[in-house]
Design a protein that fits this description.
The complex is a heterodimer of chains A (361) and B (262). Chain A has 361 residues and is an alpha+beta fold. Chain A is built from 8 helices and 20 strands. Chain B has 262 residues and is mostly helical. In chain B, helix 3 packs across helix 11, helix 6 runs antiparallel to helix 9 and helix 9 packs antiparallel against helix 12. Classes of the chains: A alpha+beta (361), B mainly alpha (262).
């Protein structure tokens, strides 16, 4: 096995529940390098949890293969797969202490009592819970239970770490901190990890690779920046981040004719009916006499329709000849624009490459 | 809304009707007289003293207690795996099995007892420990299965899945994770099956003999021959014992939950 071989490979993995009109997971293929963190991102029912459960061995695929380190594990039962799984509900054993939970996997591996205790202790200390080793899950907070679940999964030094929405049961304040801790721990240990989430911020912040899933298929598998800045499909453009949709007709040379305007894009799509997505953070506001910066070849006259103050960012909804376009101001950097009221005229500019163009559905 | 006085009166009347015989027996059991009369001519503990020095009844009490303990153990041993299969596994005929396991509860015990007699007589098992255990287990196992099914179903499946991913085989996961979390149910099932066997009369009537007899049968015979308050003292002792057992279960998990009625 060469160094470059993927640690995890899914080959046309499928799962079709009896009686369901469409497969839950539809011939998914992907490669994950050793040590990387993959986020399966998608709306509920997109098949991301089913995919994770198939990797863990808790769900039997109807077709396709799962390879770990080049070995086919598709037919292996879960107890022979060496997967550390953190369940959404944590699934801690209520009749065991934090240390007992963490040592359970080691006991199943036939380790001696002293070695078990030592390694369970080390795993709990790694997640900052060494002092609470003697507590039962009932006596731990949600965040602490989450850490015990993580320690338990990591204590067996798993081949893969699988996390099923591990942050969804935590309150918003806690979530960000735990998210960064999990990522730091994962990078320090170099554990290849698959992480299921419906939260794009989580996926973008934690993952090396994001697989955006919809209706049982992977719409795009790429690095977070790539997914956000260059969505491969219409679904990705709308599910990840916010974007304004401009409908029109694509002409040769990548010109989108839209509400009487000719917008330049970098697309190489064939001419025909098309729609384009434009993210608010790509849109530049120009002062009345300001010349657009180099490269900002698309200029739009707009009228401010609504202004939404969200703290750090002030979201602007504008009307243009091409349709509604969103822009945003940063509360700190863009002081000059603060007093804008609805009805104010605006000039907007953006680069051709900022338009993500797809054929009309 | 508070219940109206009409409803409360009705409830009180109902309770009175239900509890009056028990209260009557309670009073009579402390009688100082020689006969089952109400009101008793005086009060004493003489019938309790007589009860505990009655060799026939005490021997039958011993038999019944040991038999009930054996039946409870057997019912749990056989009932728990069946309940686990019904609660957790998906196999063809699962619903049929569940129904079949409940079937002895639907048959009149008179029919069961007669059937058992016809089968056990030629085998020479009448009035033996194995014969009685078999008969009592037949009615005790459905209770054990019912309670344990509820108890197993209440343990989240994810716990077992987590144990598998940590390297536990399905059997070890069931024994180390699911079973301990269903322990209150197992205790309740043990207590209830003990009481079922301990109180079982009709089937026992067919299966006992001079060599081996159980307490309810012995009580029945005693009450046929004699009319002294000894039988009331015995009844009160048994009620007190049953209440104690129910209190233990209630304390552990709530009796109604144990019965699978929620």
């Amino acid at each position: 096995m060469s160094e470059a071989a993927p640690h995890l490979r899914l080959e046309r993995l499928s799962r079709h529940y009896a009686g369901a009109p469409a497969p839950a997971v539809d011939a998914i293929s992907l490669d994950l390098p050793r040590g990387a963190l993959l986020a399966l991102l998608g709306p509920s029912g997109c098949g991301k949890t089913t995919t994770l459960r198939m990797i863990a061995g808790l769900e039997r695929p109807d077709g396709g293969r799962i390879l770990v380190g080049g070995q086919d594990v598709t037919a292996l039962p879960p107890h022979r797969r060496q997967m550390g799984v953190v369940f959404q509900s944590y699934a801690l054993f209520p009749h065991m202490t934090a240390a007992g939970n963490t040592a359970f996997g080691l006991e199943m591996r036939g380790l001696g009592r002293a070695e078990r205790a030592r390694r369970a202790r080390a795993a709990l200390e790694m997640v900052g819970l060494g002092a609470l080793a003697g507590r039962r899950p009932r006596a731990l907070s949600g965040g602490q239970q989450q850490r015990v679940a993580l320690a338990r999964a990591l204590a067996i030094e798993p081949e893969l770490l699988l996390l099923d929405e591990p942050l969804s049961a935590l309150d918003a304040k806690l979530r960000e901190g735990v998210r960064d801790e999990i990522r730091a721990l994962q990078q320090r240990l170099g554990t290849t990890t698959v992480f299921v989430t419906h939260d794009q911020t989580e996926a973008l912040a934690m993952a090396d690779l994001v697989a955006v899933m919809n209706a049982g298929r992977v719409e795009q598998l790429a690095a977070p920046e790539e997914v956000f800045e260059r969505p491969a499909t219409r679904f990705v453009a709308t599910f990840v981040g916010r974007a304004a949709r401009l409908q029109g007709v694509l002409e040769p040379g990548g010109v989108l004719r839209c509400g009487g305007l000719a917008l330049r894009s970098a697309t190489d799509l064939a001419p025909g009916p098309a729609e384009a997505y434009l993210r608010p953070h790509r849109v530049r506001l120009l002062a009345p006499a300001e010349a657009p910066p180099p490269g900002f070849d698309n200029l739009l006259d707009a009228t401010l329709a609504r202004r939404v103050y969200t703290g750090e960012v002030i979201a602007l909804e504008t009307e243009t000849a091409a349709g509604p376009v969103m822009a945003e101001l940063h509360a700190g950097a863009d002081e000059a624009w603060r007093g804008l009221a609805p009805g104010a005229p605006l000039r907007l500019a953006f680069r051709p490459a900022d338009l993500a163009v797809f054929p009309a559905p | 809304m508070r219940p109206s006085w009409m409803l409360r009166l009705l409830a009180a009347l109902g309770l009175l009707v239900l509890l009056a015989p028990g209260a009557l027996v309670l009073v009579v059991s402390f009688s100082a007289g020689d006969f089952l009369t109400f009101p008793p001519p005086g009060f004493s503990l003489r019938w309790y003293a007589a009860l505990f020095s009655h060799p026939g009844l005490m021997a039958a009490l011993g038999t019944s207690a040991i038999l009930a303990a054996l039946v409870a153990a057997l019912a749990l041993l056989l009932g728990a795996p069946a309940a686990y299969a019904i609660a957790r596994l998906d196999f063809p005929g699962r619903d049929v099995l569940a129904t079949l396991l409940m079937a002895p509860l639907l048959l009149p015990t008179l029919v069961l007892g007669l059937g058992l007699l016809l089968v056990l007589q030629p085998l020479g098992l009448v009035a033996t420990w194995p014969g009685l255990m078999l008969g009592h287990s037949l009615v005790a196992i459905p209770f054990a299965v019912r309670i344990m099914t509820t108890a197993f179903a209440a343990v989240p499946k994810e716990l077992e899945a987590a144990a598998w991913t940590l390297g536990a085989t399905p059997l070890r996961a069931a024994l180390r994770i699911t079973l301990p979390n269903a322990a209150p149910g197992a205790i309740a099932a043990g207590v209830l099956t003990f009481l079922v066997s301990f109180d079982e009369t009709v089937i026992s009537l067919f299966l006992v003999g001079p060599r081996l007899t159980t307490l309810p049968v012995e009580m029945f015979r005693y009450a046929e021959r004699t009319t002294d308050p000894l039988i009331a003292a015995l009844a009160m002792s048994l009620i007190a014992f049953a209440l104690l057992m129910v209190a233990v279960v209630e304390r552990l998990m709530g009796f109604t939950r144990a019965m699978g009625r929620d």
